[in-house]
Amino acid sequence: MLQFFVIAYCFYFFFSIYTSFMQIGFIKDNKRKRAVILSTSKYHEAANYGIEKEKLALVSSFVDFIIFIFWLGFGLKFLDSQIVVESQILKAVIFIDIFILVNYIFNLPFSLYQTFKLDKKYGFSKITPALYIKDTIKSALLTLILGSLVIAGIAYIILNFPTWWIFGFVFIFAVIILINMLYPVIRDKMFDKFEKLKDVELEEKINSLLKEVGFKSSGVFSVDASKRDSRLNAYFGGLGSTKRVVLFDTLVEKLTHNELLAVLGHELGHFKNGDILKNIGIMGFVMFFFFALFGNLSEELFLQLGLNSEPSSIIAIFLIFSSALSFFLMPLISLISRHNEYKADEFGSKLASKEDLVNALLKLANENKSFPYSHRLYIFFYYSHPPLIERFKELGYDVEKEKFI
């Protein structure tokens, strides 16, 4: 069975490298074309940013592959030999915490380069070193405390239930739902500054829109995202009583009222079409498949790695191989997601107007420097949203002639 997982990971690695090279070449070719959607200067900037970002991803993929070889060839066995404690639950917590820390250290240079070199070069990142360190410490503490509790919970389930993977799935699924429910509250208390909209007229228009589609929330908030990044965004956060509308201050600054309502109309389309529940269902299905697979690993696999079949090694193997196996499911998940995006665009354009939604998307593309072209294979595997050109086409907007047809 180990051979199967290794082959799957190698295929994932080499195919991701291939798609990155194809994407870089495709962007270079289309960079020479006449600019569409974006202004000429931002069109070339977006192309250059896309190429540089993909080159960084290439190097990161090679490092990830080296880490993969390290863990399977030596790291897991060595780490296991160094942790000598009686409690299997405590061992699992220490083992996985160190495992995550080592992976984080290896990937930290890429995060720093992306944030302080690449994103600053193209005018996105506004974060200061002090704020970055502050965010990192807070995230680390959250991960350490909450992550350790989750690891301890899974370890306990593995040790006490023969069919642990069923109960483990229910436990992790419940944790994910809880995190989604608490996410805006945690962001508000620890990272971002949430404020009620100062624009009373805009707030009234948004509340009227929410009421029209039957969306109940705990409020409409503006968040000071500009202290970290200049890109525009908006989202509906939380579940149940914590559900709220969150607008980046950059979005409020750049879009007109009607354009903002069109963007929110798109998001409300996801709510009205039941996409949130669909996504939870898809996530649940994928998680159940993974738990069923990793919950029935053969003893031979652990022997080949020089490990015992115990919570620490089971969780580590799950973490190592789940990303590779997810890659094979991504085309189907991305296809469903792109279909949902088209439907949300349709709903948003009816709730507001096609012109307002198109104008909002044009501003988002220019401010976020989103290159409009991507290789078909890259779209097939990685795009959860349809390419901008395709979205405009569905909305009846001809990007070549820059008019509705």
Task: Give a written overview of the molecule.
The structure is a single chain. The protein contains 14 helices and 6 strands. 74% of the residues lie in helices and 5% in strands. With 405 residues, it is mostly helical. It is globular, with a radius of gyration of 23 Å. The longest helix is centred in the N-terminal third of the chain and has 43 residues, at 40-82. A 4-stranded mixed sheet has the order 1-2-4-3. A two-stranded antiparallel sheet has the order 5-6. The mean pLDDT is 89. A hairpin with a 6-residue loop joins strand 3 (234-237) and strand 4.
Give a short synopsis of this structure:
This protein is 74% helix and 5% strand. By secondary structure, it is mainly α.
Present the secondary structure layout:
Blueprint (H helix, E strand, L loop, with lengths): L1 H30 L8 H43 L5 H34 L7 H32 L3 H28 L2 E3 L3 H14 L6 E4 L10 E4 L6 E5 H6 L2 H16 L2 H20 L4 H6 L6 H41 L2 H15 L7 H7 L5 H7 L2 E2 L4 E2 L1
Parallel strand pairs: 2-4
Antiparallel strand pairs: 1-2, 3-4, 5-6
